[in-house]
Amino acid sequence: MKHKLILVVEDNPDHLELTVLTLQEHGVTAEIVVALDGAQALDFLFGQGSHAGRDTSRQPAFVLLDMKLPKLSGLDVLRSMRANPLTAIVPVVMLTSSSEQSDILACYQSGANSFVRKPVDFGDFTDKLNCLQAYWLGANECPAPG
């Protein structure tokens, strides 16, 4: 799994720390890349801005994407990803506190692969993250780059 990477896009420092620590403590050996807003996420994915020159043929095994982000919303990031051949098929898991049916529908209509509500309970949160990483890094088969 060391050759794989996960992009975590989260602006809440507490949620970010919990997400990264949970992934690391449950044996994820994939590289974890963090973006604190939607613009940083797109810069990383498309190899621009502070990530200019990055090898964009190496895309995340999956993206954990919060919906409510500064600069560009999670939906805007998702739509940009789906519109670009570099990232059109990268799996995206919307990880959000929203339980609005309109948000769920908008995410799936925009190309999300999954919609996961952030649980309030620490144990439930870590269980969900464990399931996500086990599926997307272990069970799921993605096409080879190129």
Description:
This protein is of the alpha/beta class and 146 residues long. The chain has a single domain (5-138), classed as Rossmann fold. The chain has five helices and five strands; from the N terminus they run βαβαβαβαβα. The longest helix is centred in the last third of the chain and has 18 residues, at 122-139. It starts with a strand and ends in a 7-residue tail after the last helix.
Q: Oligomer, anyone?
A: single chain
CATH class: Alpha Beta
Form type: globular
Q: Strands across the major sheet, in which order?
A: 2-1-3-4-5
In CATH terms, the superfamily is: Response regulator
Number of strands: 5
Q: How is the main sheet built?
A: 5 strands, parallel
Helix content: 40-55%
Radius of gyration: 14 Å
How much is the average pLDDT?
90
Estimated share of beta-strand residues: 15-25%
Quickly count the domains.
1
Features:
alpha/beta; 5 helices; Rossmann fold; 146 residues; globular
Task: Give a summary of the structure in a few sentences.
The chain has a single domain, classed as Response regulator (Rossmann fold), CATH 3.40.50. The chain is of the alpha/beta class and 146 residues long.
